[in-house]
């Protein structure tokens, strides 16, 4: 096996891409920077884990629609402000909402299932139920939301 930089490959699969996007959003928030800027500085770098195309599309998509995503999130996260949510949950929910509303090739059920899985993997014991509830509420009106985007 070659150890040069050309043998480094981004993780395969959308689950790994979503996981990497959550990591980038979390790190960007901790560094008080933008995730798109953070990711673009790492594309092609041999010093860090490579970033795949789907991760880039998630980071750029959430970045481009962040204001609307946060409005939808704040409206449907009953009793929770964005600031009160754990940073990981915010990142997971933003990705889930982006996939549900702007990614026509991702069924709502898949976006919800993946987000719940990421919450189980990365966040608190209560997070999967919270993420499922918020995205489930959004799924019931997703067609109306898509129509006005």
UniProtKB/TrEMBL annotation:
InterPro entries: NusB-like_sf, NusB_fam, NusB_RsmB_TIM44. One of its GO terms (cellular component) is cytosol. Keywords: RNA-binding, Transcription, Transcription antitermination, Transcription regulation. It comes from the Bacteria. Residues 16-139 form the NusB/RsmB/TIM44 domain. One of its GO terms (molecular function) is RNA binding. Pfam families: NusB. Transmembrane segments: none annotated. One of its GO terms (biological process) is DNA-templated transcription termination. NCBIfam families: nusB. PANTHER family: ANTITERMINATION NUSB DOMAIN-CONTAINING PROTEIN, N UTILIZATION SUBSTANCE PROTEIN B-RELATED. Involved in transcription antitermination. Required for transcription of ribosomal RNA (rRNA) genes. Binds specifically to the boxA antiterminator sequence of the ribosomal RNA (rrn) operons. Belongs to the NusB family. This is Transcription antitermination protein NusB. It comes from Haloechinothrix alba. The lineage of its organism: Bacteria, Bacillati, Actinomycetota, Actinomycetes, Pseudonocardiales. The gene is nusB.
């Amino acid at each position: 096996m070659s150890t040069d930089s050309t043998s480094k490959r981004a993780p395969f699969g959308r689950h790994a891409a979503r996981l990497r996007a959550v990591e980038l959003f979390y790190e960007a928030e901790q560094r008080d920077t933008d995730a798109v800027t953070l990711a673009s500085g790492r594309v092609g770098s041999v010093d860090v884990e490579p970033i795949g195309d789907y991760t880039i599309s998630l980071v750029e998509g959430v970045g481009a629609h962040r204001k609307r995503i946060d409005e939808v999130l704040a409206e449907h996260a009953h009793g929770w402000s964005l600031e009160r949510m754990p940073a990981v949950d915010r990142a997971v929910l933003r990705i889930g909402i982006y996939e549900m509303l702007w990614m026509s090739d991702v069924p709502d059920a898949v976006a919800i299932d993946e987000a719940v899985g990421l919450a189980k993997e990365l966040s608190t014991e209560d997070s999967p139920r919270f993420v499922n509830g918020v995205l489930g509420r959004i799924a019931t009106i997703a067609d109306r939301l898509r129509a006005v985007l």
